[in-house]
Design goal:
Layout (H helix, E strand, L loop, with lengths): L7 E4 L1 E2 L12 E2 L1 H13 L3 E2 L14 E8 L2 H14 L4 E4 L20 H9 L3 E4 L12 H19 L5 E3 L7 H9 L4 E7 L11 E5 L8 H11 L3
Parallel strand pairs: 1-5, 1-10, 2-3, 4-5, 5-6, 6-7, 8-9, 9-10
Helix pairs in contact: 1-2, 4-5
Bound molecules: zinc ion.
Length: about 230
């Protein structure tokens, strides 16, 4: 039966909180993440990539598991837990920060290097683009916007030898110009941070997501997932 809803989970970091972190709320513990994957499996979800967007809805119960920024802990903790339960994730990479740290935030958390992204892909996971420097795309000039969108896409495609088809707006920030540039660059879908789930006819350049955080404890995860099902764009 074709699906009518697409929930997209949004994660940042999985695993132990780095000492001094300014954004401890962005972490999900390894145990919580493993339990969440087991619930998704029990609920018979199938993980999907977001391109081609129409194709997502031919899957019986699709879910996209996304990770913003490209933290190394996604490879260390989330990837094995997804593999063990038959899922894969999509990580949104900041093309000029591979192997560096999240310098747009507290700068304490390591990001996957090129080799680590290769290992992420080899484990069956996917990649998408999260700009070149984690810029505020709605606030910059159009030539800079092109570097952040087209430039980042080219860079990732060259590094990993594959077409990068989906985008994720840093800070969830977009507007008509940003969306147009993303679409013109050849991306087929883009994630924002509005809450809810999506339908086939939703704006595929501002997809809604379900934010999974440190405080999304226990069954609250299931409640958020259910609520997003009802609240489809
Ligand atoms: Zn981000």
């Amino acid at each position: 039966m074709p699906a009518t809803r697409l929930p997209i989970l949004m994660y940042h970091k999985v695993g132990p909180v780095v000492a001094g972190s300014h954004v401890a709320g962005h972490y999900v513990s390894r145990a919580a993440f493993e339990r969440q994957m087991q619930w998704l499996r029990a609920l018979k979800f199938t993980s999907v990539d977001l391109a081609p967007y129409d194709g997502v809805f031919s899957v019986n119960r699709p879910i996209a598991i996304t990770f913003d920024d490209g933290y190394r802990n996604n490879l260390t903790y989330a990837s094995p837990a997804m593999q063990a339960t038959g899922f894969f994730g999509i990580v949104y990479l900041v093309s000029e920060r591979l192997g560096a740290t999240n310098d747009w935030d507290d700068g304490l958390e390591p990001l996957m290097s090129v080799d680590e992204v290769q290992a992420w892909l080899a484990a069956g996971n996917r990649i998408g683009c999260h700009s070149a420097t984690h810029a505020h795309l709605a606030d910059i000039a159009e030539n800079q916007l092109s570097d952040e969108v087209n430039g980042a896409k080219d860079q990732l495609q060259e590094l990993f030898g594959r077409c990068v088809k989906t985008f994720c707006y840093p800070y969830g920030q977009s507007n008509a110009t940003v969306k147009r540039v993303v679409q013109t660059a050849g991306f087929e879908a883009a994630c924002g941070t509005r809450k809810g789930s999506n339908r086939a006819e939703s704006d595929q350049f501002d997809l809604r997501r379900i934010n999974v955080r440190a405080d999304t404890w226990g069954p609250l995860f299931l409640l958020k997932l259910l609520r997003a099902y009802r609240n489809a764009a």
